[in-house]
Amino acid sequence: QVQLVESGGGLVQPGGSLRLSCAASGFAFSAQIMAWYRQGPGKQREWVASITASGSTSYRDLVKGRFFISRDNAENTVYLQMNSLNPEDTAVYYCNRLISPIASWGQGTQVTVSS
Question: What is the pLDDT of residue 92?
Fold first, then answer.
């Protein structure tokens, strides 16, 4: 069964950090480009960052230098380290394959940045 399970979100003050995790199963994880997406209140889902099978990374301009994506192919897990968070980062964060996304998205993990 193909599954994506995100975790690690929470409430954090501006300037704080969080590390998100996404556990994948049911497909050849190590061969896939994996990505993090987010959907803020009243907004459409947007791409945040991605990482290739070999570890090359790409980031949305707004998060460059603050967010860092990584993966552990042995654990079928992709991570998103988020630093210097600001209220505009408040969103539900999801992971998925960048190419041919899995139709059934995970439940996401809520990140709220507020004082």
Answer: 98
